[in-house]
Design a protein that fits this description.
The complex is a heterodimer of chains A (about 350) and B (about 250).
Chain A lengths: L1 H21 L4 H23 L8 H17 L4 H6 L10 H30 L4 H20 L10 E2 L10 H22 L3 H11 L1 H6 L4 H27 L1 E2 L1 H5 L2 H15 L5 H20 L4 H15 L3 H9 L12 H12 L1
Antiparallel strand pairs in A: 1-2
Chain B lengths: L2 E12 L2 E12 L3 E5 L6 H9 L6 E6 L2 E2 L5 H7 L1 E3 L12 H6 L18 H13 L15 H14 L4 E5 L7 H16 L4 E5 L3 H7 L2 E6 L2 E6 L1 H5 L2 H8 L3
Parallel strand pairs in B: 3-8, 3-9, 6-7, 7-8
Antiparallel strand pairs in B: 1-2, 1-4, 4-5, 9-10
Helix pairs in contact in B: 4-5
The chains are: A mainly alpha (about 350), B alpha/beta (about 250).
Chain lengths: ~350, ~250
């Protein structure tokens, strides 16, 4: 297992570092791959580890994107005036203006998204099971529509972001940032899942009423879990917005039916409730998606649907979950085949 | 002996069904108190009222002199008043030691405590308690795979891990095979004497009740029918009538 673990870490890191050099034509696709990893990892905090299947996590992605955009533009111009041009007028940002705006905007995106998670959680944490899923989905869809009606940020027409300074389009820069974010999210969660936090949210997943009965501050854990998820999603939104260069509410910032659902699928595919599951699920999903979009165009959604059906019907526990079930001893899980037999013998002696 | 829990005049109805009517009782500190009564007599409802699972319609419930009837489940649990469930409840996808670790008292847990690791002495204590209930050899197993009886023992160990002042046990011996019952009675008594935990037990098994409790309350049709020592209850005609269905 230790061998496997280092292969996994080394392999992923090596891929992350060398892939853009080896396949320069695919840099933006691989950047999106790391975004997918962030999506799956952050979704799994709630959906996998805590058992709260949120369909509205995309909200924090969009909020982060818009907050960053507003800060970037607002630092140097009047946002309303800027968006009124609808991108028709090129506004020039100097290199230092660009990077200071990007850094401050990303920080603001992270914290505002977390704050939104706290407030939003306060409203929807009363819902359980499927009601929570539908409630969060509703909020995410509503957020997209509301944003589309808000003229200050350009409404449904969206707004263009400051262009990357210099000659390049910044794809290498955004690749590095997105890859770093994915690694940071992973390492943070690895640390988090080694603390009592993971046991507490697992306990909430297994039996929330029991957890309450044992005195665990369930609301505190739920709120913090969601804000952590929102924190990283906010950053990813900020980066992705800048990478795209143009943001609008429905397709880019709050794409509920694409990115919003992909997060769930990737975590399920890889194995929810595990650390590596979402990472593996995201990589596999993204590769399958890119291949079908390239070679099965027109049928890509059908192929994706088939994948979902196979996943849900045959591999409910996901890839990592399946492997864990097959070879539990490699994951430090002990299984007692004697269990049933021993119980019988106790009954025997009782007679 | 002072009273640790004082229930006075508690009533609770579900729609038109009166589950508890004007129930008053007291659990003395350091003792083992039992609550008996035929099926549907309102025992579990009274338990749920005490630990805050639902608001009561009227009356008062005091824990160590403090009114707790308007507190929430978690707050009451953190005061040191803990209950186990009739349908055993454990964290089924976690192993036994993890179940124990997450059951540490959350009384003074600060915000930063959420991200700490467990010090080795807590793991040691968890393993020691698993040894105490006889589950040490199963400590690394996923708890959901244990037998029902073993899950009950685990739930009991988890309750001890929480260091409660009073432990409310809802039918601790239901579904456990007869040999394990004797062991469980011994452990309950030990928890009472060694760990100093006041016990308040709902139990149907009369042999267990008479063996264990020093103080018995009997509920029937949602009202308190009788109160006394095991001997008094055994010879109380109204209790016998309630169980045999006379009116």
């Amino acid at each position: 297992m230790i061998m496997n673990k280092y292969t996994l870490y080394g392999g992923t890191l090596a891929f992350g570092i060398f892939a853009p050099i080896l396949f320069p034509a695919y840099v933006s696709q691989i950047t999106v791959l790391w975004l997918m990893v962030v999506f799956a990892l952050t979704w799994d905090i709630m959906g996998g580890q805590m058992g709260y299947n949120s369909l509205g996590n995309i909200l924090f992605f969009g909020v982060g994107m818009y907050v960053c955009a507003i800060v970037q533009v607002g630092l140097h111009y009047d946002v309303a005036e800027y968006t009124a041009f609808s991108g028709a007028v090129q506004v020039h940002f100097t290199t230092s203006q660009y990077f200071s705006g990007l850094i401050l905007g990303t920080i603001a995106a992270a914290f505002v998204s977390s704050l939104v998670a706290v407030v939003f959680g306060w409203i929807v944490f009363g819902l359980r099971g499927p009601y929570f899923a539908i409630g969060t989905l509703g909020v995410a869809i509503a957020a997209g529509e509301l944003m589309g009606a808000w003229d200050y940020v350009g409404g449904g027409g969206g707004m263009s972001l400051p262009g990357f300074p210099g000659e390049s389009d910044g794809s290498a820069f955004f690749y590095v940032i997105m890859f770093t974010l994915a690694v940071a999210t992973f390492l943070f969660l690895r640390w988090l899942y080694a603390s009592r936090f993971s046991l507490a949210i697992n306990a909430i997943r297994d039996d929330e009423e029991k957890a309450e009965g044992m005195g665990i501050q369930t609301n505190r854990y739920k709120t913090v879990a969601w804000s952590i998820s929102a924190f990283f999603l906010g950053i990813s939104g900020a980066i992705f917005g800048n990478m795209t260069g143009f943001i609008e509410p429905l397709e880019v910032a709050f794409p509920t039916v694409t990115f919003g659902i992909f997060m769930v699928l990737m975590a399920l595919l890889g194995g929810k409730g595990t650390l590596w599951g979402p990472v593996i699920g995201a990589i596999l999903f993204h590769i399958i998606k890119e291949i079908t979009w390239t070679y099965l165009l027109g049928w890509q959604w059908v192929a994706l649907g088939a994948l979902i059906v196979v996943n849900v019907v045959f591999f409910q526990q996901g890839i990592v979950g399946w492997v864990q079930e097959k070879w539990p001893e490699k994951f430090g899980i002990e299984v007692d085949e004697q269990l049933g037999i021993e119980e019988d013998s106790q009954t025997e002696t009782a007679k | 002996m002072s009273n640790q829990i004082e229930v006075s005049g508690v009533s609770k109805s579900y729609g038109g069904v009166v589950a508890n009517h004007n129930v008053s009782m007291a659990v003395p500190e350091g003792g083992i108190t039992a609550l008996i009564g035929p099926n549907g007599s309102g025992k579990t409802t009274l338990f749920n009222s005490i630990v805050g699972y639902h608001p009561i319609d009227s009356g008062s419930i005091k824990f160590e002199g403090q009114e707790i009837s308007d507190l929430r489940v978690q707050q009451i649990a953190r005061l040191g008043l803990l209950r186990t469930f009739q349908q055993t409840r454990i964290y089924g996808k976690m192993n036994c030691v993890q179940n124990m670790l997450i059951s540490v008292p959350h009384r003074n847990a600060s915000f930063a405590d959420m991200f700490k690791k467990y010090p080795p002495e807590i793991t040691e204590r968890a393993e020691h308690l698993l040894e105490f209930v006889g589950l040490y050899s199963k400590r690394k197993l996923i708890s959901g795979n244990l037998s029902f009886g073993q899950q009950k023992l685990l739930e009991f160990a988890m309750a001890l891990m929480n260091e409660p002042k009073v432990l409310l046990l809802d039918e601790p011996t239901a579904g456990i095979n007869p040999t394990l019952i004797n062991g469980l009675i011994d452990r309950l008594k030990l928890a009472n004497t060694e760990f100093g935990i006041t016990l308040f037990v709902i139990e149907h098994n009369m042999r267990v009740v008479m063996n264990l409790a020093d103080n018995i309350y009997c509920l029937a049709h949602g009202e308190m029918l009788a109160h006394g020592t095991p001997n008094e209850i055994q010879n109380d005609q109204s209790v016998i009538d309630a169980y045999l269905g006379a009116h």
